[in-house]
Specification:
By secondary structure, the chain is an alpha+beta fold. The chain contains 4 helices and 7 strands; from the N terminus they run αβββββαββαα. This is DUF2550 domain-containing protein.
């Protein structure tokens, strides 16, 4: 009888954890504007260290949440200012086994440290548009350095 109770408690704990994970995702994604996004958290081994998750655009921030985490706060925040795409490539070697075939890897530089992010090819265009955009009435730092003819 103790074995059955132990199994029942174990199943209840697992179901409770799954319920919390789904509730967390619902809370984080309730405002919309999310994309599937992988971030390379470790570069110790070639092609390894990718962590699945989803990103949410909030103003000048791209907030990345781990897929399998109980945290409501983002695991990483990328700020539009100071972020630039350095290189774009397709998954290589072991990476092809850990992400969908239509994903692209972007190596970005930021004020804090370089970061590699992976997303669907169809999402890259939206990400690059967000990266180049400036709020209404502001001048994009990427455009401010250019000499524009006087009107």
């Amino acid at each position: 009888m103790e074995i059955v109770e132990g199994i029942g408690i174990g199943v209840a704990v697992i179901l409770g954890a799954l319920l919390i994970l789904f509730a967390r995702r619902a809370v984080v994604t309730r405002s919309g504007g999310i994309i599937r996004l992988g971030v390379r958290t470790s570069t110790m081994l070639d092609g390894r260290g990718w962590s699945p998750g989803f990103g949410r655009f909030v103003g000048d921030e791209l907030r990345w949440y781990r897929l399998f985490s109980f945290a409501i706060r983002p695991a990483r925040v990328l700020f539009r200012e100071g972020l630039a795409v350095e290189r774009r490539r397709l998954p290589e070697g072991q990476e092809r086994l850990s992400m969908p075939a239509d994903w692209v890897i972007l190596r970005c530089t930021s004020d804090h440290a370089p970061v590699e992010i992976a997303m669907a090819r169809s999402t890259v265009t939206g990400f690059l548009s967000w990266l180049e955009a400036a709020p209404p009435g502001a001048v994009s730092p990427r455009l401010a350095s250019q000499d524009w003819p006087a009107a």
